[in-house]
Every structure is written in structure tokens, then in C-alpha cells.
């Protein structure tokens, strides 16, 4: 740890966890905490909880959790010191300069070298496009109507037809094979050695919101396959958490963001004046990309291809956006296939009109459903109406749901009363049948010894949770259990800090305890204890019995471990046996 405990705590205390996480996900106030669908895994029912009181978060679905530092470490892939620095800047806290560890310096240098290589490669590709070697690629772009201004703005380029061209160029700049391999710019074959990952392709540099080249997309010239390839994930590039064109779109004065399917769509849109267009990177829209775009806008339009594949992609995107409470509207491109084709044939004004008449995601889905059923057949029409009711039952806000019911009823000639009853029925049955078992983490059953160990850890975990939830238990338990009675090293540290905090201020601050753990694994482990709420009401006598039982089990196991490790020291074993017998007299009274 490179900063003092006092400074780390100052940074944490000046960054309210609800405000920080709320800038990434849409939190809803529920009871004593805030909830949302987890930003770290795909889910339909919110299991991600944030506590303002404890300044911690925990997902009961995938297990991630921690304090405000942990969140940035998980979401932004920061190290602990990087998270401290980012939050210090956010809160206006001055930090002294620090020295990196050898490992940190190695990783930082690696990332810097990869970014430098990407920048040099992008410059080289752009240069080749303007040479005789790049005539074919330049002709392709010109035939697509791309101007010189757009070629420069997007840094478009060409990778030569020689499969080791970039490799030789980067070698001449002093880069090593393993560096180029890690950057995803070359591949290595055991028989033929190193070769370029991209060759004879139109090159599209992928630039992050901070204007750094982090990867590439390449379109083959001619009929080769695959038609498009993207950079593999590297230490600076994760395709699921980046968007093509966002570095430019974030500066647009237009409202919202338009999602397209490909690089050329984005470039054509920007050229036509729609400079708020972005695209995902060769994959369907991801949770990480939705979280990324939420930082910049709360209004999204989908301009996916109008063919069957584009329609399916739009439906998948709408589902993810709905789960993250990111409403989206769908732009109709028919009779044209993509935005570029529509703009080329109809012009900018027509596309502007299409944006203004874009339909909501719900209405788009229902329109797709209508075309799947024969509306002249009574049975199929009934099936269509049932599907409509199911679709509308997913709308949680009553007023919004009623507005949709009225609009759909009018548009599709469905009796409004019958539709409302069906929506209500599906809503109730759907809620009753929610399968929460997916959120329960399944544990592998091991040997009897392993199962005993698991049970012991569970006992320790539950007792620590009681201490966190009811600080008044601490004085009585501290007299009986020392931190060293806990078998797990992390739990031992937590208990020690609980005792120290209570002695100093008569209260426990979970988020402060989290400051002392730097690994993500430890953060998840500790947060699962501190965010747990038993959720049941029990009497004082029942609570006294439960706490007493937990304390006895932990103490009994601790003494037995010391007996097992006493070797031939008979005097020590005798003392421990006496201590073990006295355990039965333990009684924790809760009032």
C-alpha cells in the first residue's frame, strides 16, 4: 500500500458509494439499500445491492462486492492505487507522488508500449493508404462515398498484401516479438514464424474515449474470408467494453446516441452530419457497452440493418437495454438495408425524419410479433394477443404500462379491458414463477474433511455478520474469542479490525475495514459478510442461543487445532483440555 491509511480513508469518505456507482448504473432505493441489475453479469432480476450506511456493495448473484475502491477496480480494471487516484481526483483530494512496485511498473510499461505500438501501426496503415500499395483500399473507400476528410478523421488505413510488412516495420522501431504478440498485431506459427494479424485489409483504428488507439478492425479486399476481423483482447483492449466512434460521438451536440452495426455505417453517418453514431465491435451489444454509453447519454436509437439478422440483433439489444433501464427507440430503415444505403438514396433530411418517427422498443417488438401471426386466423390472432400481453406485463411502471395498453389496444384493435386483464394476469404469474435459484452459488461437495472445513468457515462467517449487524454484541464476544480463534486469515483480520474500531469509537465502519484489503478476491469475500442481512425476526432468547452456539463451535475448533499442534507437550495439552471443557459454560445473553 503506497498511501497512508488516513489518506485512503479521506478519499473513500469523500466519495459516497451511491453517487459513484449511480453514475454507472441506475440505482433504485429499496428499504435500507439501493438495488440494480448487476453491471458485472447478465441478469433479469436485480441482485446487486449498494448500502449507503455501510458504504459497500454486493451482488448476491455473482458474488462481487466491496467498497467504492473495489467498484472501480472491477468496473474500470484499475489496480488499487489507480482506484485511489481516480477517486481522489473526483473528490479534489491531493495525493503525494508514489513509487510503483516492480510488478505495477512492469504492467504500466507494458500498457504504454502497446499503446505506442498501436499508434505507430495506425500511422503506418494511414500512410500506406495514400501510397501506390493502398490504391485498392482507397478505391474501395471512394466507391463507398467516403471523403478525404472522413478518412483523416477516422484515421482509416491499409495493411499491405505482404503478410510480414507491419512486423518488419515495428521491428525496425525496436519492438520485440513478444510485445507485438501481446498487442495482438502479429501471430506466430511454429512452422512459419511471426506474421501480421492484419494484411491486405482496409484498416479501421479503434479509438477509446480518451483518443488512444487501443485496437483495429480490418476488412478484407476482395472475396477473402473472414470478411472482417478485429483485434483480440489485450491489456488495453476489451471489445465488450468499447464502442467504435465513441471518441467522436461523445463530443456531438446532437441528442442521444445512434447505434449502428458496422464501421462503414458509423463513418457514413458522421459524414452525413449524424456525428452521434457508434457501433459495437464485431459482437452483439454487451452489458459493458450499455454501461459505457450510460455515462454519456440517456437516449439511444438503434439503426441496425433491416434484414432478419439485424432485426434479431435489435431485439437482443433492446432486451439488454431494458434490463439496465436504458430506454431505446428503433429507427426504421426500410426499404433499405442499412443507414448508409438509406442516406445515399434519400438524403440527410429523410434520415432526420426517420429519427423523429423512431418507435419505442416495446412497439418495435410488438410490430415484429404481428408479422409472425396470421391476423385473419382467430386462433393465431389470439396467440398474437397473448404474446402482446406478456410483452406489456414486463413494464413495471403502472402509468407507463397503462399508456402502452391504450396505444396497443387502439393500433391493433384489441379490446382494452381484455388486454389489461391479460397483462395483469401474466404479470402476477410471471412474478410468481421467477426462478431465483440462478442466483444461488452452487458449491461442490468435497470429502468429509473438506465439508467440515466449509461448515467451520460458514460458522465464522455468520458470527462476523452478527457482529457487523449488531455492534453491541462485540464486548461480550471479545472476552471469549480472540481474532486468532478464527481459522480463516481474512476473517481473522476482519475480526481484529472490528474489535479495534469498536474499542476506539463504539461503532464499526465496514467500508473502512475494506480499505485494508487490496485483492478482488478478498474484497468479494469480506463484502459477502458485511452486506448479508438475515432478514428474519427472532426473539432475544433465540438470538442468545444462536450466538452462543456459534461462539462455542468456533472456540471448540480453535482449541482442538491447538491440541493437534501441541505435539508431545503434555502439560499444554492438559491445560487446553480443561479450557475445552469450560466451553460448555459459555452463555451469551442478548437483551
Oligomer category: single chain
Q: What Rg is obtained from the alpha carbons, in whole angstroms? A: 30 Å
What is the CATH third-level topology name of the largest domain?
DNAb Helicase, Chain A
Report the mean per-residue pLDDT as an integer.
Answer: 85
Largest sheet: 5 strands, antiparallel
User: Could you give the count of β-strands?
Assistant: 16
* Strand ordering within the main sheet: 1-2-3-4-5
CATH class of the largest domain: Mainly Alpha
CATH superfamily of the largest domain: DNAb Helicase, Chain A
CATH architecture annotation of the largest domain: Orthogonal Bundle
- Number of helical segments with 4 or more residues: 26
Strand fraction equals 5-15%
Q: Helicity range of the residues?
A: 40-55%
Overall body shape: globular
Low-pLDDT regions: 429-445
In angstroms, what separates the terminal alpha carbons?
A: 41 Å
Structural class per helix/strand content?
A: alpha+beta
Number of structural domains: 5
Describe it for me?
This protein is an alpha+beta fold. The chain has 5 domains: 87 residues, DNA Primase, Chain A (Alpha-Beta Complex), CATH 3.90.580.10; 127 residues, DNA primase DNAg catalytic core, N-terminal domain (Alpha-Beta Complex), CATH 3.90.980; 113 residues, Dna Topoisomerase Vi A Subunit, Chain: A, domain 2 (3-Layer(aba) Sandwich); 56 residues; 138 residues, DNAb Helicase, Chain A (Orthogonal Bundle), CATH 1.10.860.10. Helices cover 51% and strands 10% of the residues. It is built from 26 helices and 16 strands. The strands form 4 sheets. It has a 5-stranded antiparallel β-sheet with strand order 1-2-3-4-5. A hairpin with a 5-residue loop joins β4 and β5. About 3% of the residues have low confidence.
Amino acid at each position: 500500500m503506497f498511501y497512508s491509511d488516513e489518506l485512503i480513508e479521506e478519499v473513500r469518505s469523500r466519495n459516497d458509494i451511491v453517487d459513484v456507482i449511480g453514475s454507472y448504473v441506475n440505482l433504485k432505493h429499496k428499504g435500507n439499500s439501493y438495488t440494480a441489475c448487476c453491471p458485472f453479469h447478465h441478469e433479469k432480476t436485480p441482485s446487486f445491492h449498494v448500502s449507503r450506511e455501510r458504504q459497500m456493495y454486493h451482488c448476491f448473484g455473482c458474488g462481487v462486492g466491496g467498497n467504492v475502491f473495489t467498484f472501480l477496480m472491477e468496473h474500470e480494471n484499475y489496480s488499487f492505487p489507480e482506484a485511489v487516484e481516480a477517486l481522489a481526483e473526483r473528490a479534489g483530494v491531493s495525493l503525494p507522488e508514489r513509487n510503483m512496485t516492480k510488478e505495477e511498473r512492469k504492467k504500466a510499461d507494458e500498457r504504454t508500449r502497446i499503446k505506442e505500438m498501436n499508434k505507430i501501426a495506425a500511422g503506418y496503415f494511414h500512410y500506406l493508404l495514400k501510397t501506390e500499395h493502398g490504391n485498392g483500399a482507397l478505391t474501395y473507400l471512394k466507391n463507398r462515398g467516403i471523403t478525404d476528410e472522413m478518412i483523416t478523421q477516422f484515421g482509416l488505413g491499409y495493411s499491405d498484401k505482404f503478410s510480414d510488412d507491419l512486423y518488419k516495420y515495428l521491428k525496425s522501431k525496436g519492438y520485440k516479438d513478444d510485445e507485438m504478440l501481446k498487442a495482438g498485431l502479429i501471430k506466430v506459427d511454429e512452422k512459419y514464424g511471426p506474421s501480421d494479424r492484419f494484411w491486405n485489409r482496409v484498416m479501421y483504428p479503434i479509438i477509446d474515449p480518451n483518443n488512444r488507439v487501443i485496437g483495429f478492425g480490418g476488412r478484407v479486399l476482395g472475396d477473402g474470408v473472414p470478411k472482417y476481423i478485429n483485434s483480440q483482447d489485450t491489456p488495453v483492449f476489451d471489445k465488450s467494453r468499447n464502442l467504435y466512434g465513441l471518441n467522436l460521438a461523445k463530443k456531438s451536440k446532437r441528442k442521444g446516441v445512434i447505434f449502428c452495426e458496422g464501421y462503414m455505417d458509423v463513418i457514413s453517418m458522421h459524414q452525413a452530419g449524424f456525428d452521434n453514431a457508434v457501433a459495437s465491435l464485431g459482437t452483439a451489444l454487451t452489458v459493458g457497452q450499455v454501461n459505457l454509453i450510460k455515462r454519456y447519454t440517456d437516449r439511444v436509437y438503434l439503426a441496425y440493418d433491416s434484414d432478419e439478422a439485424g432485426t434479431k440483433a435489435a431485439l437482443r439489444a433492446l432486451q439488454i437495454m431494458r434490463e439496465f433501464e436504458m430506454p431505446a427507440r428503433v429507427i426504421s430503415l426500410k426499404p433499405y438495408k442499412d443507414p448508409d444505403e438509406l442516406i445515399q438514396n434519400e438524403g440527410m433530411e429523410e434520415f432526420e425524419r426517420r429519427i423523429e418517427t423512431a418507435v419505442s422498443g416495446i412497439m418495435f417488438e410488438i410490430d415484429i410479433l404481428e408479422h409472425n401471426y396470421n391476423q385473419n386466423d382467430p386462433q393465431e390472432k389470439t396467440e398474437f394477443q397473448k404474446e402482446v400481453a406478456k410483452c406489456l406485463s414486463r413494464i413495471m411502471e403502472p402509468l407507463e404500462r397503462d399508456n402502452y395498453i391504450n396505444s396497443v389496444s387502439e393500433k391493433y384493435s384489441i379490446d382494452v379491458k381484455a388486454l389489461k386483464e391479460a397483462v395483469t394476469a401474466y404479470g402476477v404469474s410471471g412474478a410468481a414463477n421467477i426462478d431465483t435459484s440462478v442466483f444461488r452459488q452452487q458449491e461442490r461437495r468435497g470429502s468429509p474433511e473438506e465439508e467440515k472445513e466449509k461448515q467451520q468457515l460458514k460458522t465464522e462467517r455468520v458470527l462476523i455478520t452478527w457482529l457487523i449487524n449488531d455492534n453491541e454484541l462485540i464486548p461480550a464476544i471479545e472476552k471469549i474469542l480472540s481474532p486468532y480463534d478464527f481459522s480463516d486469515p481474512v476473517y481473522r483480520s476482519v475480526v481484529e479490525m472490528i474489535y479495534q474500531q469498536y474499542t476506539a469509537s463504539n461503532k464499526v465502519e465496514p467500508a473502512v475495514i475494506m480499505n485494508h484489503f487490496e485483492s478482488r478476491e478478498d474484497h468479494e469475500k469480506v463484502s459477502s459478510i458485511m452486506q448479508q442481512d438475515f432478514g428474519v425476526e427472532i426473539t432475544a432468547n433465540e438470538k442468545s442461543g444462536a450466538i452462543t452456539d456459534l461462539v462455542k463451535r468456533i472456540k471448540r475448533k480453535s482449541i482442538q487445532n491447538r491440541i493437534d499442534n501441541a505435539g508431545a507437550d503434555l502439560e499444554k495439552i492438559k491445560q487446553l483440555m480443561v479450557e475445552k471443557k469450560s466451553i460448555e459454560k459459555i452463555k451469551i445473553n442478548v437483551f
